[in-house]
Design a protein that fits this description.
single chain; mainly alpha; three-stranded antiparallel sheet; two-stranded antiparallel ribbon
């Protein structure tokens, strides 16, 4: 079939044939655009003229492309691709078509794409599409959305180092650094993504450089493996995340503490076992969380210290024999505190260091979840101690009066979700031997998702906490006699009574007063009922 963004064409889910229907046209167009390079602005994906349209029924795709170029002279020198095989996808009609096998391609003029262009970095091609979809999973998407800037940064440092030790000429090193910066700018503009068939960002980067800059692109992988590439980019990402969480915790602690000072004069019931216990204040309650978020920095800083070592150059976990890499140079270029010396320890730290990072982030997330639980209790109508402005609450589709604090329900749940992601990483690495195992790929998604939950939660709290309002009248009315019984105990202790005797006496007197009060209220209740 001819290059597509046509409302007439689609794919039959049973056998992969092209059919004249509108279903999935946008999806198919997206796959084609992602799969094959062609110049921006060139409309190769539509019928350019009636001449091309009329020829499409009787000519081959290659002939159709020649017709298109004859009808649009300005496009004769552009690089387009014709698809010369059916698109295959998996599942029945209506299934998600993202599992389709990438089409086999030929360049205009009939030249088949070289085997080298279609191959994986590990030298394979023609991998069974079910195997490819299963083993790649979402790794390519995670690299495309989150990891590419870190892979580019590490690759740039590696290229500079290779030039320094003479593996690359100075000109080659500069070309690679230029190409990597170019990819970064394209990524920022949303014009560089990773395709499933490329498996990961490492492949996408190397293929781009090789296709555009030639032989020098084949040299960038010298002295490294995808193992230490992944280790390094994830390490850089993890350090950025830890430092961001640390900054957010300090800011949240600051704003919470400042707001607590404005609320310290407002009394508030303290609770244990979800029951009223002893008197406290709104300020003291809020400062408790502020103190916790402040202390979170200790664990986060310790995690940074653990992770802040350079694994680049460890290759597949055994270093490189016959080539002396300057790992201290890449550590300096990447702002690592030191080199992670033992290459086998580098491999062993994959997954383990991500677990260390999430353990450090778990304290602010646990605090956030517990803060959310308190907010759900203190904003319900039965207590109505606290509230937030209306732009922090949602409503009901059926009950007009509702003001729901959904953000705290989600936050309460996300504390558990975060913990499950951390356990997922820990359980994935438990029992693995030393050396690389593909199991470790499964830690990446959980780690990225957990980091995102932590940073988004803290950012939301930084906005919400300073706007927290205390309902002073409701709080003062809630300061009932039962909250002060323990104070009565210690008044007796101060007067010389033994604690246990003071405790028993205060308890007996309190419940005696309560019984008398209930008896006095009972006739009034009966009269009101009558």
């Amino acid at each position: 079939f001819f290059f597509l963004r046509s409302s007439e064409l689609t794919v039959d889910g049973r056998d992969g044939r092209v059919m004249c229907k509108s279903t999935w046209k946008a999806e198919l167009s997206t796959v084609l655009r992602a799969s094959f390079p062609f110049s921006e602005g060139a409309e190769h994906n539509t019928y350019a003229s009636e001449r091309a349209r009329s020829q499409s029924k009787t000519t081959s795709p290659m002939q159709q492309c020649k017709v298109l170029k004859q009808s649009r002279p300005e496009e004769r020198n552009t690089s387009c691709v014709c698809v010369c095989a059916s698109v295959v996808f998996f599942g029945s009609r209506g299934s998600d078509p993202r599992g389709r096998q990438r089409p086999i391609a030929k360049r205009c003029g009939g030249a088949t794409a070289t085997k080298e262009e279609m191959a994986k970095l590990w030298g394979g091609s023609g991998l069974h599409p079910l195997v490819e979809a299963y083993t790649v999973g979402e790794d390519y998407r995670i690299d495309s959305e989150f990891m590419l800037p870190y892979d580019i940064k590490a690759s740039s440092a590696h290229a500079r180092m290779l030039a320094k030790i003479g593996v690359l000429t100075q000109a080659e090193g500069e070309t690679l650094v230029k190409a990597l910066q170019e990819i970064l700018e394209l990524w920022k503009a949303g014009k560089f993504t990773v395709d499933r068939s490329q498996e990961d960002g490492h492949t996408a980067i190397e293929q781009y450089i090789t296709e555009k800059y030639g032989e020098v692109g084949k040299k960038i992988h010298t002295g490294r493996s995808r193992n230490d590439q992944s280790l390094t980019m994830i390490r850089l990402y993890a350090l950025d995340q830890l430092r961001e969480v640390d900054t957010l915790c300090k800011e949240l602690s600051r704003v919470a503490d400042a707001h607590a000072k404005t609320l310290e004069h407002i009394p508030m019931p303290g609770y244990t076992h979800m029951q009223r216990a002893m008197p406290t204040s709104v300020g003291k309650w809020l400062n408790a969380f502020s103190s916790g978020w402040k202390d979170s920095s200790h664990g986060l800083e310790a995690a940074v210290k653990t992770l802040d070592q350079n694994p680049l150059g460890s290759a597949a976990g055994f270093g490189i024999n016959g080539l002396t890499l300057d790992r201290a140079e890449t550590a300096k270029l990447l702002d690592f505190a030191k080199v992670q010396e033992n290459p086998m320890y580098c491999g062993l730290s994959r997954g383990m260091f991500e677990n260390v990072a999430l353990q450090a982030m778990s304290l602010p997330m646990v605090l956030a979840s517990r803060f959310a639980a308190d907010m759900m209790m203190f904003t319900q109508q039965e207590s109505s101690f606290l509230r937030l402005p209306d732009d922090f609450v949602t409503g009901s589709s059926i009950m007009p009066q509702k003001k729901n604090y959904d953000m705290f329900e989600i936050m309460r749940a996300n504390g558990k979700v975060f913990g499950s992601l951390q356990v997922q990483i820990q359980e994935t690495i438990v029992g693995l031997g030393s050396g690389y195992h593909r199991d470790l790929q499964c830690t990446k998604k959980a780690f990225v998702e957990a980091c995102g939950l932590c940073t988004s939660t803290l950012k939301l709290l930084i906005e919400a906490v300073p706007k927290l309002q205390a309902r002073e009248g409701n709080l003062k009315a809630a300061m009932t006699e039962d909250l002060y019984v323990t104070d009565e105990v210690y008044k007796r202790v101060a007067a010389g009574t033994a604690f246990r005797e003071a405790y028993a006496a205060a308890k007996a007197e309190f419940f005696k007063r309560q019984a008398a009060k209930e008896q006095a209220e009972e006739p009034a209740a009966k009269r009101a009922k009558a």
